[in-house]
Amino acid sequence: MEVAVKKINGETSGKKINLSDDIFGIEPNDHAIYLDVKQILANQRQGTHKSKERAEIARTTKKLKKQKGTGGARAGSMKSPLFRGGGRVFGPKPRDYGFKLNKKTKELARKSALAYKVKDNQIMVIEDFTFEAPKTKNYLNVLKALSLDNKKTLLVLGDTNENVYLSGRNISNAKIVTADSINTYDLLNADTLMLAESSVQKIENLLS
């Protein structure tokens, strides 16, 4: 499948690039996408939540009332979960929410996300570019020229480019990554996927 390559000023460069059908043209697998996104979000959880159980509460252990004769249930400690300020029953404890996912499943999920972007016409290939110095205004001008200034975008670079990365870092609806660090969540979370020309071959090598 051929896609026209655009310049960063919004004009057509006259060049076309071929996107591999084995990567960008597969039938998307929704379950693989679900598992990969679930793992990505699970790995982002801190898992540091904690509540105290009755053994950890600092309250008196004096018996509240006599065992019998009050007409109410027997009670022996203010630490009981039944009383206000008592310990919590089966409360959350620090834990790791991460889980294992097969490498081939993750690859299939990324291929499926890319295929959805092509199907929905949400992919754009642009010429490789750089800036002389990091400047947010420069990157905003690129987005404006490509009519993407009001959309959530993901720019995939072939190699690390510090000036481009620093220029777009402070823009809330724009994210910049390299080809070897793309993930399913970022691909699907973006309204438009911007692929630098040099990143296409690297993505195909990574997922082939």
From TrEMBL:
One of its GO terms (cellular component) is ribosome. SUPFAM superfamilies: Ribosomal protein L4 (SSF52166). Keywords: Ribonucleoprotein, Ribosomal protein, RNA-binding, rRNA-binding. The keyword Ribonucleoprotein applies. It comes from the Bacteria. Transmembrane segments: none annotated. The keyword Ribosomal protein applies. One of the primary rRNA binding proteins, this protein initially binds near the 5'-end of the 23S rRNA. It is important during the early stages of 50S assembly. It makes multiple contacts with different domains of the 23S rRNA in the assembled 50S subunit and ribosome. Forms part of the polypeptide exit tunnel. Part of the 50S ribosomal subunit. Belongs to the universal ribosomal protein uL4 family. PANTHER family: 50S RIBOSOMAL PROTEIN L4, LARGE RIBOSOMAL SUBUNIT PROTEIN UL4M. This is Large ribosomal subunit protein uL4. It comes from Shiella aurantiaca. The gene is rplD.
